[in-house]
Structure formats: structure tokens, C-alpha cells
Amino acid sequence: MTTSKTAAARSKLGGIVLMLAAWQLFAMLSDTRMFPGLDAIGLQLIALISSGELLDAAGSTLSKGALGLAIATGLGSAIGMACARNRVIDAALHPIISFLYPVPKLALYPVVILVFGLGASSKVVQVALECFFPLFVQMYAGARSVPKNMEWLAANNELSGPRFAEDVLLPTMLPFLLTGLRVATPIMLIVMCVTEFVGESRGLGALIVQYSSYFDTASAFAVVMFFGLLGLAADRLIVFARTRLVHWERGGQL
Q1: Could you tell me if 190 and 156 are in contact, meaning their C-beta atoms sit under 8 angstroms apart?
Q2: Is residue 26 part of a domain?
Q3: pTM score over 0.90
Q4: HSE, side-chain direction, 13 A CA sphere, residue 229
Q5: Can you give the pLDDT at residue 8?
Q6: H/E/C letters for each residue in the chain?
Q7: In the chain, fewer beta carbons within 10 Å around the N or the C end?
Q8: Do the Cβ atoms of 128 and 65 come closer than 8 Å?
Q9: What pLDDT is recorded for position 154?
Q10: Residue 223, CA atoms < 13 Å, CB-side half-sphere
Q11: What whole-number distance in Å separates Cα of residue 59 and Cα of residue 115?
Q12: Distance CA 162, CA 236 (A)
């Protein structure tokens, strides 16, 4: 077991090293400012963090993105649970959600801007639109996956309403919620980056546009790298939360 874990860790490290080496080699061979090396990107990343500019932009991006993700989580959980536990609601809403899921929601962003303006509200709404669907799918599956024997046991013990939700439904749905968040969080970061390209003077996406307009590609790539680091940190945080909260599935991998 220990040997397999060590081999897996070496494989992960090897993949990262290979990717970074390929990037650096291409940067050296191309010898152009438009494709900077890792050393230049790293120096700019440190400089932007030290100046506080990058952290201020990250605070603006994450505050709006987190609000949109929270709205999507609340709506996805509530509607997913309602559809899974009520046939009438499921028959009414599920076809509509299935129709809307494959629609490219970013294509609707001009309409969202017309309704909510160019400020923070349109970005929050766009994040909520994009993140709602994967969370709905996971929460619907979680609510439908309650074992029949658990439902019978709850009925025999006269567990209903809040007690049934707390003792049976929520523990069953929690792993699905964490999986949905793991899918939706990178989507949130992507949507925030893209929406901040338009009519925004703050945020990480706006920084990318700003540095690209100055042909300062090292700084632009530094912001992109910071996006990746944020995504990695969020992913590891969700995995850590699962190991702590879903203690009855410690053997499961996320």
C-alpha cells in the first residue's frame, strides 16, 4: 500500500516537472517576449503579490465569485432535493433544467449585462447560472440515492420532516454536495475571469486584460498562474473537508 502511494506521488510530481520543463524549453526555443519563461513569470508573480495589487484583485474576484457560488449552491440544493423527493415538481422542472443545461450560459452574458448592468451584480448572476446546473445534478442524485432500507427504518422510527432530513437525507447528500462544489468551484473561477474581461477595472480578469494591452505577457501569465494556484488550493480544501466530514467513507477517493 505504501509502495503504491509512493509510486502515485512520484507520478504526479513527474507529470508536473515534465510540463514545466516543456514550457521552459519552448520559451527558450521561441526566444520571444510574447512567451516568457518560468523564471520571468515567477518573478512577476512575486512582485505582484508583494505590491498587494494581485491580492486586492483576488479579493474582488473571489468575493463576487463566492457569492454567486453560494447562490448556486442554495438553489441547486433546494431544487435538486425537491425534484428528487417530489414527482410533481420533478415532472414540472426536470425537463426545463435538462433543456437549459447544455445551453452555453456565457453566450447569455450580454443579456445579463443588459438586465443587471456592468457592475458586480451581472458577474454574480452569471456565476450562479453556470454553477447551478452541476450542483443541481449532484444534489438530485444525492437525494435519490437514499437507500430504501434507511427510508423504511426512518418510517418505522417515525422520523419525518426535519429529523429525517438531519439524520438520513443530509448525511447521504453530503458527499454529493462536496463533489458538486469540486466541479463548480473551477467553473466559478473561469466565469469570473471571463466576465472581468468586459467593462471591469478590478479583479484578476481585468488585470490580465490590462497587462496584455501593455504586451506585458510575463505579468499576464503570472495572474493566470495565480488563478491556477487558487483553483488548486480550493480543490485541496474540498478534499480535506470530505475526509473530515464524510468520515464514514474514509476509504473513498475524491
Answers
A1: no
A2: no
A3: no
A4: 13
A5: 59
A6: CHHHHHHHHHHHHHHHHHHHHHHHHHHHHHCCCCCCCHHHHHHHHHHHHHHCHHHHHHHHHHHHHHHHHHHHHHHHHHHHHHHHHCHHHHHHHHHHHHHHCCCCHHHHHHHHHHHHCCCHHHHHHHHHHHHHHHHHHHHHHHHHCCCHHHHHHHHHCCCCCHHHHHHHHHHHHHHHHHHHHHHHHHHHHHHHHHHCCCCCCCCHHHHHHHHHHCCCHHHHHHHHHHHHHHHHHHHHHHHHHHHHHCHHHCCCCC
A7: N
A8: no
A9: 63
A10: 26
A11: 25
A12: 31
Domain that holds residue 102: 37-249
Q: Which of 7, 53, 6, 34 is nearest to 204 (CA)?
A: 53
| CATH code for the domain of 159 | 1.10.3720.10
Q: Cell numbers for 181, please give them.
A: 462544489
Question: Can you give the pLDDT at residue 186?
Answer: 95
Which of 138, 114, 125, 139 is CA-nearest to residue 68? 125
Domain count, the chain: 1
* Residue 150, pLDDT score: 65
Separation CA 8–CA 34 (nearest Å): 35
- Residue 3 within a domain: no
Residue with cell 437507500: 147
pLDDT of residue 85: 82
In a domain, 25, yes or no: no
* Distance separating alpha carbons of residues 57 and 226, to the nearest angstrom: 11
Indicate whether 4 belongs to any domain.
Answer: no
The ranges of the chain with pLDDT < 50 are: 251
User: Rounded to whole angstroms, how far apart are CA atoms 154 and 249?
Assistant: 21
CA-to-CA dists, residue 89 to 81, 131, 164, 193, 209, angstroms = 10, 21, 20, 35, 44
Give the Cα separation of 163 and 1 in Å (integer).
40
- Tens of pLDDT, residue by residue over 60-94, are 999 999 999 999 999 999 999 899 888 999 999 99
